[in-house]
Amino acid sequence: MQTKMLFTLFLLICWLSTVQPETTPAKKIIQHEKEDEYDRDIHSVLREMTAMLAKQNVQIMYLQKENEAQAAKLRDVDNLKEAIQAQTAKLKTTEEKLAELDKLKPQLQVKQVAFSASLVATGQRHFGPFSALYTLAFKHVITNIGNAYNPNTGVFTAPVKGAYHFEFYIYGYGDASHGSGAILFKNGRHIFIAYEHQPSHTSSSSNGVTLILEVGDVVYVRQRATAKIFDSVNCHTTFSGHLLFTM
Questions:
Q1: How crowded is residue 52: how many other Cβ atoms within 10 Å of its Cβ?
Q2: Which residue ranges in the chain fall short of pLDDT 50?
Q3: What is the structure's pLDDT at 246?
């Protein structure tokens, strides 16, 4: 009896092992549903990622264009800076040239020095004789470029160091006791004399000299003591000078 029961239990176990559970199809359906839902989630994520990538690509393209525009603006700014720098350099060069010209103006003006004057401005007059040397003030100024000659004193003052040439002409009436003559002085030193003595008629004498003058040196003409000089509106007696070149 016991043996028969054991055999029956063995058969039952074998049959159960060969029989498929009735719940297997339902589980498969649930599993397929889960797989389908998982696939749908993956596709949804992929779609979102694709849309996001597309949006990022658009943003990247926009940023690239904006960067290109900014780069073009920066290039324009750089070109403008270069142009401004070039103009500034030109302006600086121009200002430097103008400054040099301003410095040269006095020198150029100084290089234009010349004067010529006769002894009397109106009428006629006899000068002398005097008991001592007499400085002649040539009043009738014909030319005084640079204003280096003073007609009130008869003194020429050198405005710049250089070589100057001077000439003076002395006119007088003949006199048995007095000749006509004058001396050109530089800084109080006798340089050249022009002198003529005739007992009758008229006499004329002249002389000229080139002098090296420093700035402030003075040149003038002094009548000889006891001499007689004449001048009129015809400009017989004259004093002239001009700058030859600077040094």
A1: 10
A2: none
A3: 95
CA-wise closest residue to 219 among 182, 187, 183, 181: 187
Encode pLDDT of 125-143 as tens digits: 999 899 999 999 999 999 9
* Cα 120 to Cα 117: distance, rounded to the nearest angstrom: 9
End-to-end C-alpha distance for the chain, whole angstroms: 158
Query: Which among 214, 241, 246, 245 is positioned nearest to 149, based on CA atoms?
Result: 241
CA dihedral 33, 35, 36, 38 (to 10 degrees): 120
| pTM exceeding 0.90 | no
Query: Are residues 219 and 155 in contact, defined by beta-carbon separation less than 8 angstroms?
Result: yes
DSSP output for 47-85: HHHHHHHHHHHHHHHHHHHHHHHHHHHHHHHHHHHHHHH
8 A C-beta contact, residue 164 and residue 219:
yes
**147 phi and psi angles, rounded to 5 deg:** 50, 40
- 17 phi/psi in degrees, rounded to 5: -70, -25
Provide the token pair at 159.
Answer: 């405005």
Tell me the C-alpha distance between 220 and 138, whole Å.
10
Asked whether the beta carbons of 211 and 156 are under 8 A apart, the reply is no
DSSP letter at 187 equals: T
pLDDT at residue number 26: 62
DSSP state letter for 20: P
Q: What per-residue confidence (pLDDT) applies to 221?
A: 98
pLDDT at 63: 85
Q: The tokens of 105 are what?
A: 């103006």
